[in-house]
Amino acid sequence: MQNEEMISADEFCIHYNIEKSFLYSLKDSGLLEITMVEEKIFVPVHQLSQLEKLVRLYYEMDINLEGIETITYLLQRMNEMQQQIIHLRNQLSIYENE
Amino acid sequence: MEFIDYYQILGIDNKATEEDIKKAYRKLARKFHPDLNPNDKQAHQKFQQINEANEVLSDPEKRKKYDLYGKDWQHAEQFEQQKQQRQSQHSGRQQFYGESEHDFSDFFESMFGGSARSRQTKFKGQDYNAELKLSLTEAMETHQQTLTVNGKNIRITIPAGIENGQVIKLKSYGAPGINGGPAGDLYITFSITGHPHFKRSGNDLYTTTSIDLYTAVLGGETTIDTLKGKVKLKVNPGTQNGTKIRLKGKGFPVYKKDGEFGDLYITYHVIVPTNLNDKQKELFFELSKLK
Fold first, then answer.
1. B88, HSE (Cβ side, Cα atoms, 13 Å)
2. Which residue in B has a C-alpha nearest to residue A73's C-alpha?
């Protein structure tokens, strides 16, 4: 079994000065994975950078949850498309170098 | 060093209220924020300008100084001295933009010095970008390399199968954070140089091998070089020029999938003999009569 590092939601919220309800809303929108251990909420470490980004979008750029959902989806698509471009460019270079 | 029109950067006029500035800043930040424009250097630069403009215009003290001396920034020093005499203080705003690179222009530094950084706001350190060149043979083996980024040696493991143009992020290997903020990240872009004999497409490799006419006609064996050593191949009788065969699992390793490989495609190039001697010519004539 693999152990995953977790960060306490309380600690995160204190550090970033945000309300815990925000994390619940992210969880309900499917944007964040949280784990309950003995009635305490934890966030997996691998989600931390994504969570920090969501905090910035919400608190600093004043983007509401619906907007964040859309942005997350579009960024994901953009990333996939960028990977595809890299792949296609590499394929094209085969023919260009011939 | 040129004067920077912060009002123009935010698209407002010099009578703009605090609310106007905030609105203009937020609108532009939503467009150019690094979170929303990953790997876009132009957007990062634009965001730095917007951030700098906001830093000045949203702070009444700085705005006053900018309005007074903006175009004549060389005299700002005088203003600074007067300000120190007044011993005025202002409280810092608590906004921060974690992913941004908080480098200020020379104009800003000259006018406001390092004052912007003295605020106790936490900033994420600057992200670094580096390019690493690998040969095709290097890219097919998981190996370690030591990079020197800003005088710091970083040892990284490069997984086999990495693709040309692929970017990997090393969290917290960028510049240190400011005021206790997190360190920036290091983005490494891999540039894989071409190989004289092999072309790569995804996980598949392509190569060409020459066989003589006799082997092509009668069949036989040929030995080819793969990136992992020599392989003996059986050539079928009647093999045409340009025939392509596939060696399953002899291609490039699949990224982060141990033991999985793409295929190797070999195209046969049949060499037609030249400079035939009389005897050979005679035999070919005889052969041609038989067809």
1. 11
2. B36
CB contact (8 A) between residue B29 and residue A53: no
Which value does ipTM take for this structure? Answer: 0.70
- Domains of chain A, with CATH numbers? 6-96 (1.10.1660.10)
Render each residue's pLDDT in chain B as its tens digit; 291 residues.
678 899 999 999 989 999 999 989 988 988 888 888 877 778 888 888 898 899 889 999 889 888 887 766 556 655 556 555 554 444 333 333 444 445 677 677 766 665 444 444 566 777 788 889 999 999 999 999 888 877 788 889 999 999 998 988 888 888 877 667 778 888 899 999 989 899 998 899 999 999 999 999 999 999 998 888 889 999 999 999 999 999 999 999 999 888 899 999 999 999 999 889 999 999 999 999 987
pLDDT at B88: 42
Residues B167, B109 contacting (CB under 8 angstroms)? no
CATH code given to domain B6-118: 1.10.287.110
- β-bridge pairing A40-44 and A6-8: antiparallel
Edge-to-edge strand order for the sheet containing B128-134? Answer: B128-134, B186-192, B167-170
Residues of A within 8 A of B36 (CB-CB) are 71, 75
Question: Is the Cβ of B96 closer than 8 Å to some Cβ of chain A?
Answer: yes
A45 touches chain B (CB under 8 A): no
Q: Domains of chain B: which residue ranges? A: 6-118, 128-192, 199-289
Nearest-by-Cβ selection for A86 from B29, B36, B165:
B165
Are B97 and A56 in contact (CB < 8 Å)? yes
Q: Which helix (H) or strand (E) holds A54?
A: helix A48-55
Q: Chain A residue with minimal CA distance to B30? A: A61
List the helix and strand counts (H, then E) for chain B: 9, 11
CATH for the B128-192 domain, from 3.40.50.720, 1.10.10.10, 3.40.50.300, 2.60.260.20: 2.60.260.20
Nearest chain B CA: its distance from A39 CA (Å): 29
Q: Which of B53, B188, B41, B152 is nearest to B101 (CA)?
A: B41
- Cα nearest neighbour of A74 on chain B: B36
CA distance B215 to chain A (A): 26
